Structure of Pectinesterase:
Amino acid sequence: MHYSFILFMLLLALSSCVCIDGAASISKFITVDQNGHGNFITIQSAIDSIPDGNQQWVQIYIKQGTYREKVLIRASKPFIVLQGEGASNTIIDWNDHGDTKNCATFIVYASDFVARDITFSNSYNWNIHAPEVAEAALGWMIANAKDNQNSPTGFVFKYCIIRTSDESTYLGRAWNEWSTVIFFETYMPANIQPQGWEAWHASPNE
């Protein structure tokens, strides 16, 4: 089972929909180039360089290439913009599976996060690694969690393309009772489960 998001813009944290289109809104620029022509050669090292508690927008410009790494943005590092060189040119890929909190290619715990012109891909293939369960396995691409119904946060996927392998899959699953996810003008393949979301065997989430 292979998932990828081709993102023209991904905005996390609905509470902070500020305008960052102008260069004046960005306080610092960092370049990542795996060929060594930037400030860092990995995305994770660029993220780690941003101080904890940062309160100003930092843009990390990721030059073209396939970056095979698992990326984590901790809650202590808000106000990050990831800018790629086009969804077909800048790709972040990893091939993990299993534990929800650790298997994703790209994990964001911070508020105020934006990504543009990047493909996020999980290339783990159930048909190769676990053929005996592949036919029965249904996956989820997104798991959003909120602590309470008044929390003004969530995921927004805007102008995206979702690609999957041939297996049927869910858009995501409810993690707690108040998950909030919006897809805006996003292409979805035909093998997405018609109901879209799975309650994760918890009746309050249905």
Q: What stands out?
A: The longest helix spans residues 43-48. The radius of gyration is 17 Å. The chain has a mean pLDDT of 77. The helical segments are 43-48, 126-129, 131-134.
